[in-house]
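Give me structure tokens for this 84-residue protein.
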Amino acid sequence: MPDGKPAGVPCVQLDAHGRCRLFGRPERPSFCGGLQPSAEMCGSDRVYAMQWLAALELATRPAAATDQPPAASSISMCSMPSSR
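Here you go.
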């Protein structure tokens, strides 16, 4: 996404299962690997993880962003890609 990924918008590189199509490939942006899954982030289930990530997106969005809360299904970091 050349202009960045707005909060609440799924990354265009996620497949139908929420897995990154660029995982492990050199063209994957370096910032994508900077946020590593942790027990605190992932919790005990996907619902918790998605709520945590939505809150992170909300807390870190630019000041000019709209007041719409991010969608809980915007990204998935805790589901490891099958190609790993």
